[in-house]
Write a structure and sequence with these properties.
alpha/beta; Nucleotidyltransferase, domain 5; 6 helices; manganese; Ribonuclease HII; nuclease; hydrolase
């Protein structure tokens, strides 16, 4: 059962999606839920089917006090590294919110201080706190929509299915076609990349 964070009435939950992908943005969302928000379906996005995530997306958008989503593109990921890009995406999402809430709960164990905000990092927070779970669902669904659009431009990588993750199919396509402008050049695209010029 997901809990409400007990230290603040209106905490800001934030989470990211796409950190381990070879292509596409890393996406983060920040969400403030009403104090008495309840939904029996709501859980960590990784534990939900795609249908359930997209069912929850408009419910969260409609009932949240406020929410925001940020995409950080591959060029920036390559420039500042994926951890910093993930934190930047979460911070930018927080700053977009129209809320008086000043306490952030972050999924995971890494974040960076923000002026005028306090924060707590919570391991597996997306399976413990509703606002983080809601943020995980928005981050995942918004990123999936981006990857579906990029799939239309480069269908040979099947991003509509693998969403840019390092599946065997995705890596086979990289071997055959090389990388695109949406691939993260700082990532090890192939296991044998040290011997390949891609």
């Amino acid at each position: 059962m997901l809990k409400k964070f007990h230290l603040s009435k209106n905490e800001i939950g934030t989470d990211e999606a796409g950190r381990g992908c070879l292509a596409g943005p890393v996406t983060a969302a920040a969400v403030v839920l009403p104090e008495k928000f309840k939904n029996s379906l709501l859980n960590d996005s990784k534990k939900l089917s795609e249908i359930k995530r997209f069912t929850l997306k408009p419910i969260i958008e409609d009932l949240a006090l406020c929410y925001a989503v940020t995409h950080i593109e591959p060029l920036i990921i390559d420039d500042i590294n994926i951890l910093n890009a993930s934190i930047l995406a979460m911070q930018k999402s927080v700053l977009k919110l129209d809320t008086a809430a000043k306490h952030i709960i972050v999924d995971g164990n890494r974040f960076k201080p923000m002026e005028n905000y306090t924060y707590d990092c919570i391991i597996k927070g997306d399976s413990k706190y509703m606002s983080i779970a809601a943020a995980s669902i928005l981050a995942k669904t918004y990123r999936d929509e981006v990857m579906n659009l990029l799939h239309e431009e480069f269908p040979m990588y099947n991003w509509k299915q693998n969403k840019g993750y390092p599946t065997k199919e995705h890596r086979a396509a990289i071997r055959k076609y090389g990388i695109t402008k949406y691939h993260r050049k700082s990532f090890k695209q192939l296991p044998e990349q040290l011997e390949l010029k891609i």
